[in-house]
Amino acid sequence: MPSGRGRMMSLLEWDDSYVSGIAAADHEHQHLVRLINRTHDGWEREPGRDPARLLDDIFNILLSHFDCEEQMMRQGRYVGWPDHARDHECVLDDLRGILAHLGEGASELDNALTCCLQPWLVDHIRVHDVPLYRAAEAMVERSAEPR
Question: Which of 55-64, 93-102, 108-117 has the lowest mean pLDDT?
Answer without folding.
Answer: 108-117
